[in-house]
Design goal:
single chain; 287 residues; alpha/beta; Rossmann fold; six-stranded mixed β-sheet; four-stranded antiparallel β-sheet; disordered C terminus; binds adenosine-5'-diphosphate
């Protein structure tokens, strides 16, 4: 669905943010794009949806350059930016203004999502709280039913119950026809939601891997481990006790601790990545 080849992008030519970056994203997946603040997540997403233009290389959506912003591309993609302008419109008025741009938009689905997210339908968007207006736009983003849905930090500003509702709605919205991409710097927000993790760090995609593949190759522990357990590839101390990543010895699959994995990847210690390379994980489709 999204094919990025040899992307070179910088806000100025002299300071490149991405050099020679390549990435493929397929339908039927929910991707989590993780990176520290300022790592380049928003910029990468904007290149994908045709709001920032590569200096060289290509970003294709369904084989068409995103930067061309063709109607056929735009009607099948929705980008939810981190900050959204809130016009003085009720849900019905917003539908009348915007729904027509998306052939598969469903007003009844939108109103159902609003009800589920407890957003008052009669109130104007600019009179909603920050969290409510965020949920309003999430409901709309899901109801347009586009093949590509890109959300930039959608959980920022949501309270804990709303984050759980968000995860539920997103999981239900995934079909074989859709490709969902969610960026965050709050890794835990995507727990139990995404199936593929992308990590952007130091201007590169350092990891592009399915959670199943990761669970097959790595084991994550918090707390004491039995004597004789393999040496950790990465370890840190958390509030819950010592946490570590080790090679999976094949004794079973556990849950991938995305926060620990993320910390390991950005720590500068390459042992986890080296292990993934050695076990031939299909990762880092870059350079
Ligand atoms: P993230 O979404 O991961 O927080 P961004 O893509 O927003 O990161 O930013 C990546 C880098 O690009 C940062 O160093 C940021 O300061 C810079 N940047 C972002 N937008 C602009 C812009 N419009 N002009 C110049 N620099 C920018």
């Amino acid at each position: 669905m999204v094919r990025i080849r040899n992307l070179y992008f910088g806000y100025s030519r002299r300071v490149p943010l991405f050099e020679n970056l390549s990435l493929d994203l397929e339908r039927g997946h929910i991707y989590g794009l993780l990176g520290k603040n300022g790592a380049g997540k928003t910029t990468l997403l904007k290149n994908m949806v045709g709001l920032a233009f590569p200096l060289s290389g290509t970003c294709l959506v369904d084989e068409r350059p995103a930067a061309a912003r063709l109607p056929v591309t735009l009607e099948d993609l929705f980008f939810l930016p981190e900050e959204q302008y809130a016009p003085a419109l009720t849900a019905e008025q917003f539908v009348a203004h915007t729904g027509g741009f998306y052939p598969r938009f469903s007003a009844s689905q939108f109103y159902d999502y609003l009800a589920e997210l407890e957003v008052p339908r009669q109130r104007k968007l600019n009179q909603l709280s920050h969290g409510q207006s965020k949920k309003f736009m999430i409901a709309f983003a899901l109801a347009v039913n586009t093949g590509l849905l890109v959300m930039d930090e959608p959980t920022n500003g949501l309270d804990i119950p709303s984050k759980a509702q968000f995860r539920r709605l997103l999981a239900a919205a995934l079909t074989e026809e859709r490709c969902l991409i969610i960026s965050t710097h709050q890794v835990r927000d995507l727990d139990a939601l995404i199936d593929t993790v992308l990590v952007v760090h130091n201007r590169e995609i350092v990891l592009n891997s399915g959670l199943d593949e990761l669970a097959e190759r790595l084991s994550f522990t918090v707390g004491a481990v039995p004597a004789g357990t393999a040496e950790p590839l990465y370890a840190e101390t958390t509030a819950a006790g010592p946490a570590a990543i080790r090679p999976n010895d094949g004794s079973g699959y556990g849950r991938v601790d995305m926060e620990l994995l993320f910390n390991a990847l950005i720590s500068g210690d390459s042992a986890v990545l080296t292990h993934l390379h050695q076990t031939q994980l299909s990762h880092a489709a870059v350079r």
